Amino acid sequence: MHVADYVWYITVGVLLALLTFDVFIIGRRPHEPTTRESATAIAFYVGLAVVFGLGVWVFSGGEYAGQFFAGWLTEYSLSVDNLFIFLIIMSRFAVPRKYQQTALLIGIILALVFRGIFIAVGAAAINQFSWVFYLFGAFLVYTAIHLASQGENDDDDYKENAVIRFAKKRLNATDEYNGVKLTVIKNGKRLVTPMAIVIIALGTTDLLFALDSIPAIYGLTQEPFLVFTANVFALMGLRQLYFLLGDLLKRLIYLSIGLSVVLAFIGVKLVLHAMHVNELPFINGGHHIEWAPEIPIWFSLGFIIITLGITTVASLAKSRNTVTKEPVQDVVPEPEESDANKA
């Protein structure tokens, strides 16, 4: 796929302009977005991604468009799973609702930075070493097994990492929020606010999720332009999605299981691709393995859509049945005292 330099500049410029506008608005007016505001923003960003994918189809063909849509759907699903962890973080640190949007925005910016770094590193590694596909594939299969072993999504899935524990233990911190500020001066000493710890938690979580998402996208396309745009579009509108879905995120109890199936599929796809470009001397004498099947992108896209669709329907059905079957405790009124007892 040939992408002219000016197309790169225009694409990156437009996306950065959208992000800058978002930062400017949120930075000046931290608030909890309304349902209408959230729905409008999500519709805009999803529509923008669809239009971009159709543009890829027109100018570069259906193969590359299919790669973009498959990568975007996979990254979007991983980002939604990331939102579930964000929800737990906000709850545990008791972040006021009107400040959560700012925290989420900073978390998403950090995610963009980390993914940008990993995209560049991954592209350089793939260009130099074809055996990297074996590593990516094995890592995704391992991640899939780990996700599947966790079962349904719940609050116990989140464990504070070493960076968060160090920050909470070593940094001079106050228990009170001071708007969206990260530090505050009290009695002549500068203290970090709980918002700073929240940002650290979101940032380290983003870093861990980037380790999963980049091998996954490279399993669907090796075009850096598509890898970058799929990741950016997957992160756009996540703040609004967080507030629009709210507790519905907790009802996607099978999301991790569905993602484990998708990641395992992409991992196998990567290993098969690695066999086709094999250069390792101890595997087939360093020659390509011709009998290994190549999985076409249309099959990958269909598999991802069907898997995520089944996961969503099953999650909502299970959570609805759980709520419906939850026993209601009858309140039995205490018997009134008889006149004799009152006397």
Describe this structure in words.
With 343 residues, the chain is mainly α. The chain has one domain (13-321). The protein is built from 13 helices and 2 strands, in the order H-H-H-H-H-H-E-E-H-H-H-H-H-H-H. It has helices at residues 5-28, 35-60, 62-92, 97-128, 132-150, 162-170, 194-218, 224-235, 238-245, 248-251, 255-276, 297-325, 339-342; strands spanning 183-186, 189-192. Strand 1 and strand 2 form a beta hairpin. Helix 4 runs parallel beside helix 7 (194-218), helix 4 packs antiparallel against helix 8 and helix 6 runs antiparallel to helix 7. The longest helix is centred in the N-terminal third of the chain and has 32 residues, at 97-128. The termini are far apart. Mean pLDDT is 78; it is low at 326-335 and 337-343. It is found in: Membrane. Belongs to the TerC family. Keywords: Membrane, Transmembrane, Transmembrane helix. The chain crosses the membrane at residues 6-27, 39-59, 65-90, 102-125, 131-149, 191-218, 224-245, 252-275, 295-317.
